[in-house]
Amino acid sequence: MRRCYLDYNATAPLRAEARTAMIAAMDQIGNPSSVHAEGRAAKAIVEKARGQIATAFGADGA
Predict the structure, then answer these.
(1) Which residues fall within 8 angstroms of residue 46, CB to CB, at 6 or more apart?
(2) CA distances in angstroms from 4 to 9, 11, 16, 21, 27, listed in the order given
(3) Best label site of 6, 15, 41, 44, fewest CB within 10 Å?
(4) Which of 21, 48, 56 lies closest to 32, judged by CA?
(5) Range 5-18 average pLDDT
(6) Across the chain, how many H-helices and E-strands are there?
(7) Would you tell me how many other CB atoms lie within 10 Å of the CB of residue 41?
(8) CA separation, residue 19 to residues 3, 27, 33, 60, 61 (Å)
C-alpha cells in the first residue's frame, strides 16, 4: 500500500529546486548589510529571493 502524508501542518516535502537554492545561499558567506564584496553578494541573494517571492504573489513593484 502506498502511503500518503497529509500532515502538512507539521512539515512538508522540500522541492528539489528549493533545496538547491537553499544550499547555494548557505554556501555564501557575508552579512547582507555589509558593503564588502561578500556582503554585496549575500545581499544580491536576498534581493533576488524577495523579487521571486513578490512575483509568485503577484506583488511586483511592492
Answers:
(1) 32
(2) 14, 14, 19, 26, 33
(3) 6
(4) 48
(5) 87
(6) 2, 0
(7) 13
(8) 23, 12, 24, 24, 27
